[in-house]
Amino acid sequence: METKILYGKEVAEAVKEGLKPRIAKCVEKGIHPGLVVVLVGEDPASQVYVRNKTRACESLGIYSETLRLPAETTQKELNELVDQLNVDDRFHGILVQMPLPKHLNDIEIIERISPRKDVDGFHPMNVGRLVQGQNALLPCTPAGVMEMLIYYNIKTKGKHVVIVGRSNIVGKPMLNLMYQKSEYANATVTICHTGTRNMKEYTLRADILIVATGVPEMIKAGMVKEGAVVIDVGVNRVNDKTKKKGYRLVGDVAFDEVKEHCSAITPVPGGVGLMTIAMLMKNTVQAAEDHINLKNDGKK
Amino acid sequence: METKILYGKEVAEAVKEGLKPRIAKCVEKGIHPGLVVVLVGEDPASQVYVRNKTRACESLGIYSETLRLPAETTQKELNELVDQLNVDDRFHGILVQMPLPKHLNDIEIIERISPRKDVDGFHPMNVGRLVQGQNALLPCTPAGVMEMLIYYNIKTKGKHVVIVGRSNIVGKPMLNLMYQKSEYANATVTICHTGTRNMKEYTLRADILIVATGVPEMIKAGMVKEGAVVIDVGVNRVNDKTKKKGYRLVGDVAFDEVKEHCSAITPVPGGVGLMTIAMLMKNTVQAAEDHINLKNDGKK
User: Which CATH number is B30-114 given?
Assistant: First the structure.
């Protein structure tokens, strides 16, 4: 059987298509979904991410603004800005681009954003609600993985999902999404990390293997069960003199060799990475809808 | 080798002993740690639990009050009471005894309690912080399991911990505690539940098996690896005419047969169950200490 390549682009497009009527409905009700992106300092990678995010907004007709602050911005200044944005009705989503300059406390900022506007899904309130199976704004990358599995009709129910990596951004929320008692989850889940002994013993048992470690091509063919589904969340630059830029992008999975053994796999680039911004758009629309519902509840 | 029986009583005593100097220090600073327990309705089991909790407070010199509300209490009344207690400086911990009568929304109440006073550790804010590896008030039963493992010098680092059960109260927080990158966690963790196929395949691989399902004696000898550590969080009543009360208490593990195969096991009763109230006391003292620190920070 041929290995199915799971491309992110078509799933991301489908997600964005699904948002268009929802955005139109918000506008009809007099609310234009809005996202504000806060960028502190001049990190070049962050500049690119921020540009991509605001472009995605434009293409969907989501109102967006980017606030660029100098690298010397103080905690107090950033806190006050967040406080203002929390009550600014133009914006239903607030995204403070990480990483922040080192003198700023990222946890303090994340917790200061209103959980209702936390479109990154990083606020403990949203994390806790996710864990408890309540409605929450979900972190974009793991939510994007869920969308991809649904789109490609890969069932998780009763499967053994093994997650490699325990970051706050991917591994932990991925874990907590996957065991939930819901139609599109309900998997038995194992989480592995740098403290895991004999990693291979675990990865070899995965029906669905999800890798988010930041270690280039660490998952080799011998670590994957024949016929497994492999989701590679990693995006790593490795030096490559044959490329114009001097590097190429690889995932956390050794794609070429693993591909031969699995039933489906996400490529890097072109896989999960493309989902993140689409899910950010979805969260922004979700936050705008929740805002409308809350206002209407208030009127009752 | 003989199987070690892990009794909860001596660990709970050790935890409470450890609290005495901390309580004395709070009192020295003019703050008497206080717990308020809110009991709605007449559930007989809840009455017993509440009595045990306030007795534990008395024995340690923690100030406590029990507020008994009629079963007909409205959501609005209960909300308003919680609001008052949130700003009542006599109480550093607020415990609303669950389950609430069916007309009341327990999630609304849990989220209304100030996360700082949430000594049950059920507020999403505390759950989210736990997941993210930040300081949090931890749910009492899983925190009690961690204490027992530390007390009996059972290392979790690099071990395979398998958790059976995905309740908000035990299974989920237990999972999220166990994989954290810390000296007393750092395990590879698998979570199983009612959606798991071939449960035995997973439980047989556990170095440490933690069971919290509410299904009497579901874990049989054939499901446990030789030499494993077995932690039984279940407390179930089964009919037994030979007993005065007409029932006896059993765990989720078939103790007599599993005991023969494992290196250590918690009994029911007498095991994990005894830890919960001790951990509630610990959370109350913790909340009082945090209150003092916060006040002092404010003075700076």
Answer: 3.40.50.10860
